[in-house]
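Project standup — Tuesday

K.O.: blocked on the structure for the chain from last sprint. Re-posting the sequence here as requested.
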Amino acid sequence: MNGTLLLRIAVAIILLSHSVFGMFNNGINDFGNLYLNQIGFAPFGVFIAWSIKISHIIAAILLLWNKYIRLAGFVTIFVLLMGIILVHFDNGWFVVGGGSNGIEYNFLLICVLLAIIFPNGFKTKRES
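H.V.: unblocked you, prediction finished:
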């Protein structure tokens, strides 16, 4: 067991809850049809939306198993960065409070994923 277990569990829970819920309330299809297709991804919006959520589920499983952590982390970071660029950036920093639907949550998840991927910091081989 390594020092990232608690963070890996927390991120896995977030990724799973954010993904699985949308599978049962039509949220993924709505995101694909009503958002992604409308901003230029038609006719692939639903496919992209499902790909994002499936990548979250796979990443959550890999984080829990402590396998392919870098792959899972970097794919998820890419998705989060695209979410910032396409969805959240125009809404500012705050998710709630000083605004709504901003980037702060994605920013925190990216930082946590980087801490999981690089538990000893960004050391080069020579520094080890």
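K.O.: great, moving the ticket to review. Residues 5-122 form one domain. Residues 45-65 form the longest helix (21 residues).
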